[in-house]
Amino acid sequence: xxxxxxxxxxxxxxxxxxxxFTCATFKQFFPHTVKIKLEIWWDKLVHWLFPEVQITFNExxxxxxxxxxxxDTVESYLCSKSVAQAARLKAVSVKKDQPLVLxxxxxxxxxxEFQGIKVSWxxxxxxxxxxTNSIYPSQTNSIYSRQRxxxxxxxxxxxxxxxxxxxxxxxxxxxxQEGKALKKGRRFRRLYMKNPSDGFxxxxxxxxxxxxxxxxxxxKRKKAIINxxxxxxxxxxxxxxxxxxxxxxxxxxxxxxTGKSTMIAAMSNLLxxxxxxxxxxxxxxxxxxxxxxxxxxxxxIIVVExxxxxxxxxxxxxxxxxxxxxxxxxxxSKVTLxxxxxxxxxxxxxxxxxRIFVFTTNHVEKLDPALIRRGRMDMHIExxxxxxxxxxxxxxxxxxxxxxxxxxxxxxLFSEVNMTPxxxxxxxxxxxxxxxxxxxxxxxxxxxxxxKEGAGAKTKEEAKxxxxxxxxxxxxxxxxx
Length: 481
Ligand SMILES: Nc1ncnc2c1ncn2[C@@H]1O[C@H](COP(=O)(O)OP(=O)(O)OP(=O)(O)O)[C@@H](O)[C@H]1O
What we know:
This protein has 19 helices and 13 strands. With about 475 residues, the protein is α/β, with parallel strands linked by helices. The chain has four domains: about 1-50, no CATH class; about 50-185, no CATH class; about 190-380, Rossmann fold (3-Layer(aba) Sandwich), CATH 3.40.50.300; about 390-460, no CATH class. The radius of gyration is 30 Å and the shape is elongated.
């Protein structure tokens, strides 16, 4: 503003309304190219008179599928400022999995100050016509119509030209960091599953209490898994540098009750990711699988449980009664192995980064090697019977103890017999309200001894060989049938 003298400024100021009126009147008669030029000159004139910079954060970007993350982050950041300053507020998040969040209403403005620099934020609304004609072309296709927004808003940040470098650098970094932290702290995680009526993802609030602290496992292995997950979640730049899609696959395998589902919950709680539970037998064909994939969000875990039972990827499997029922409800799934492999790491898997794929199985040996090769399933995690160290985690969870005179006996029994963490946990649970630690430990010892006697005092190795032989016999019988 110091560029102009007081008198000149007064003259220019009083001429602006007249100029605007004249422009608006004649604009309709100008050819399109002239109109564009006039708009550019007009912007330049305004900028010369009021040297300010504006940055707009649109609710929807060029992507047809997603709300802008930056817009949501700004909204979270401005929440407390809006509550303190705006005359009109709006409840923007009244979903079942989120506490009520208030934001400034449309056409409101709030001010912010960071390290002595003042800026202002304005919330505007874009014309629906523009939105429908350009970014969201009218489509009858269900994914488009479901995702289309009826109107689009934006936040506009305005600040003096002289602070351009500071605001575009330090200030916006601060806004994004604060906004993300607020969003994360406020949001419950979601468990998505396919809605049978319309074939789209539907979700429930996910509040599973399992964490890696309470997960019973050998400490060294557990640490390695945690490190792997955390390294992945922070490796955006690294994945970009090596030219790889930012995703990682984990194969969890082991007998029933060894904690595969529990580990998925612990992963979600560690990273704050949502879970998509994919039931392959309910998916019609490869196209539907692709649609579901592109509608998953980043920061998520896509789970296929019991993948050996999901589809006939092995070509050897017999249908279970449950699958027969599903077939009757949904029709036969035409998802093929190649369609599924494309789902995991084809070109479409790159549409949103930061995703984890988890497959679980009780029979790893039955899976097609292509499905679980390294690079597709990067980490193979065997979850097996409870060891003494894992038992100690459960004892701490259930009874808050790290040692006990009965531990020696339990240690000895764990070296002799197999028991899943699920069974150990069940035995440690107090059976009555006033249950005590000694009764629980004795119950567990008794259960372990019963297994030992039942197994004919077989060693673990002998039991394993027997189980393998039995499995091979079953397969032979199946083949004959
Ligand atoms: N490693 C573990 N740490 C803590 N609890 C566990 C662990 N493993 C199993 N449990 C307990 O056992 C129960 C069953 O475990 P979970 O469902 O995770 O097993 P699973 O391997 O997924 O079984 P399935 O193959 O039958 O689906 C859980 O609710 C949990 O309480």
